[in-house]
Amino acid sequence: MINSNVGSAAVELTAELVAIDSVSPSLVPDAAGEARIASHLMDRLDAAGFAIRSIPAPSDPRRISLIAQRTGSRPGRTVVLNGHLDTVGVEGMPAPFSPRIESGRLYGRGASDMKGGVAGLVVAAEQLAAADVPGTIIVALVADEEDASVGAEAVLQELRGVTMDLCLIAEPTWLDIAVAHRGYAVVDVALRGAGSHSSQPEAGVDALRALGQVLTAVADADDELRRRERHPLLDFGSMMATVARAGSAPFTVAATADVVVERRILPGESPHDALDLMRALVDPITAATPGLAGDVRLTHARDAWQADAAGSAAEFTNLLSDALRSAGATPPAQVGAPYWMESALWQAAGVPTVVCGPAGGGLHAVDEWVEIAQLERFAVAVTDAVERFLEAGS
Known about the structure:
The protein is 34% helix and 26% strand. It is an alpha+beta fold and 394 residues long. The chain has 2 domains: 6-181 and 304-392, 3-Layer(aba) Sandwich (Aminopeptidase); 183-302, 2-Layer Sandwich (Alpha-Beta Plaits), CATH 3.30.70. The strands form 4 sheets. Strands 1-2-6-3-7-15 form a 6-stranded mixed sheet. The longest helix is centred in the C-terminal third of the chain and has 21 residues, at 372-392. The protein starts with 5 loop residues before the first helix and ends with a helix.
């Protein structure tokens, strides 16, 4: 039932989406945000027969996500097709919103992360609606994935109480199927001592020296994590300092020092444990230095994720793998991602989740592109796999 134009329609829609500025204002002050791209896709899905809901983020009503829902004439399962609408900034890009096709690649900001994946999902949803497949299709396209995921959280709240049998997230995986990713915690450490002239260091309390000790302790903790048993897809967790600041001027003992520490976690670990670990590293340092105070705060935390090994996620993974092969793709591998994705949020909400999408190169860089062949095969394969999944559950 797949229309022969599915692949080309996905390429055309990707170009339309790249041409719409949807840079995240969480990352770039006064950036465009998602309202315009969400409106464009709501109009398109409305024309395809979907009921449309615009979902503003409670914390910022300018951050717009959308839910498009259609139930077929026969009862059955519910599938969510999910992607994000925001992109990172465009500094250094000469024409970020002017899509161009060259040597089998479509260039422009968001082409790979992840307007190509979104386009493939939307085109597949249109095809499936036209075929009146059984069950319900929900297209959930969200704001703010590149920062705090306020869009995904608002959409999940809106869908609370809805039984969903599967969520497919079209993050760029180069058409492999991601079945695990690491989580993270970000901890801020503030060290407060006392300044003095550097010729009389005994009159002060050197926060910079204490910072050096904290950095050494963090590096030692990272070494210990790398000695643990490796995860088969994600290797090991990690711990590193990513930002450090101290001191105010030459010839002055540093009165203050601050460091940001990032802890990457594996499935089965809690990101909140990072706070206790950092306190265990910092407290002995402050206790050994009279007059030095340390404040340790957890600022961000996201769980790691591992796909269900059985049930509907495993069933759909098999269907999608077969569909990708039939569409001409290399047989997909099951892979892990070292970075975080919103699959953890969907699965935590009780929705079995699979991650697969087209990709290319230059993610978050100045030459972003998606491979057109991957994009075309993805749209065809998703249409095929979702149809089979819904028919099997009817």
